[in-house]
Design a protein that fits this description.
Number of helices of chain A: 2
CATH class of chain A: Mainly Beta
Mean pLDDT of chain A: 87
Low-confidence stretches of chain B: none
Oligomer: heterodimer
CATH architecture of chain A: Beta Barrel
Distance between the termini of chain A: 75 Å
Number of strands of chain A: 10
Largest sheet of chain B: 6 strands, antiparallel
Number of domains of chain A: 1
Helix content of chain A: under 10%
Strand content of chain B: over 45%
Mean pLDDT of chain B: 83
Strand order of the largest sheet of chain B: 3-2-5-6-7-9
Number of strands of chain B: 10
Strand order of the largest sheet of chain A: 1-2-3-4-5-6-7-10
Radius of gyration of chain A: 30 Å
Shape of chain A: elongated
Low-confidence stretches of chain A: none
Order of helices and strands of chain B: HEEEEEEEEEE
């Protein structure tokens, strides 16, 4: 009986045969030995979106200086320092945040450059810290009536006694963007960031609505940022 | 370069066209005073007032709050910029003055809702024309309107 089984198994055996294959050319091609070196150094610049926004938006003033330092082929240490003043107008409150911030972190360049190009598509992390004053300029008690937000029955007076509190916020952010070398050593960069609040000192009986460097603080403690920078590379070495 | 111009344009439009994304859904934020009207003879059962007009002298334009209403429940706002609100409840031409005394406190709620007002150390007075009595005489705080604050017997 087993004899038949074994014979049947033989049917499943297959054999590969090669006869027309030619031997590959073994001639050695010499590798291209030209090495493109890229510059290492400090890159400094400014965020030009902030002065533009300051000029078109009455309730905003801002300035940001950016810098990075290349530590390896792919990694850059990056920092941003800035000043911002923003007035937030809400339905029932009007407040101004004014102060300084710093963001520290690194960028990882994921872009493989051709030849001697110096472009980047990068992702990075920043730790952000800001010290600022938030002034509650005025507020109106919310006494709206009924479902249709009817007019309050009693006269409503807006409280204009300003109160200022010194605050600080700490946050983490993820940055993605790209950089392009437009002229020799001059870079234009566009990046966006997603921020998560780690800790913040809130004013008593009020809330941090806007933090310099973090921008508008959303309900869940998240924020978004945008940078458009022009920077100049001061080359130290070429590697 | 063209790409960059497009990007600048895009970013500016993103920044400048931010639509309002949160609305105050809490309603009302500042609590009203809730009154319920009971039968003076049978203190367990609700009794409607009929064609009552409600107003306060301190209201804007001296408007009536309610005109000719028939119900057993009344929600009335308190004047947040005073320590006392005097209401007139006029039923069949008889006016009953109801006075509420309190201190106010402004409490921050949220970005979209702003500040609300809560009322502390509340006490009530009535000149009892058609109202016979009410309970309680005082309340420590009015910070919501989920429940009836005062029961009025007539």
């Amino acid at each position: 009986m087993y004899k038949y089984f074994i014979s049947i198994f033989v049917l499943f055996v297959f054999v590969d045969g090669f006869s027309q294959e030619q031997k590959k050319d073994t001639l050695e091609t010499s590798k291209d030995s030209t090495l493109y070196k890229s510059s290492y150094g400090i890159r400094v610049g400014i965020d030009i979106s902030k002065p533009i926004l300051s000029s078109i938006n009455d309730s905003y003033t801002g300035l940001e200086i950016v810098g990075d330092y290349r530590i390896s082929k792919k990694f850059y240490i990056a920092a941003e320092v800035g000043f911002e003043e923003e007035t937030t107008q809400e339905d029932f409150t009007n407040s101004t945040s004014k102060g300084n911030y710093i963001r520290l972190g690194f960028n990882y360049n994921a872009y493989e450059n051709w030849l001697d190009m110096n472009n980047e598509i990068f992702a990075g992390y920043r730790y952000g810290f800001s010290i600022f004053d938030q002034t509650l300029n005025s507020y109106t008690p919310n006494v709206v009536r009924g479902e249709g937000n009817g007019i309050p029955y009693f006269p409503v007076i807006t409280n204009t006694t300003a109160s200022t509190t010194s605050l600080n916020t700490h946050w983490s952010e993820l940055v993605v963007g790209f950089k392009a070398e437009t002229f020799k050593n001059v870079f234009i960069s566009v990046s966006g960031s997603y921020k998560v609040l780690m800790s913040s000192k809130d004013p008593e009986n009020f809330q941090t609505l806007y933090s310099p460097g973090f921008n508008r603080v959303f309900e869940s403690g998240t924020g978004f940022g945008f940078n458009y920078t022009i920077s100049y590379l001061i080359p130290f070495t070429k590697r | 370069m063209k790409k960059i111009v497009v990007l600048i344009f895009l970013s500016i439009s993103i920044f400048s066209s931010c639509e309002k994304d949160d609305f105050c859904t809490q309603n009302p934020v500042t609590p009203n005073l809730v009154l319920e009207f009971y039968d003076a003879n049978n203190r367990e059962s609700l009794k409607n007032f009929s064609s009552m007009t409600v107003w306060s002298e301190s209201a804007e334009n001296n408007d009536n709050l309610f005109e000719d209403i028939t119900n057993n429940k009344l929600e009335i706002p308190l004047n947040q910029f005073a320590t006392e609100t005097v209401y007139n409840f006029s039923q069949n031409g008889i006016v009953n003055q109801f006075t509420i005394k309190y201190s106010t406190e402004e409490v921050y709620v949220s970005r979209s809702c702003g500040f609300r007002v809560i009322f502390n150390d509340v006490s009530f007075e009535s000149d009892n024309t058609w109202i016979t009595s009410f309970t309680p005489q005082t309340l420590t705080t009015i910070d919501n309107q989920n429940e009836t604050h005062v029961q009025i017997f007539h």
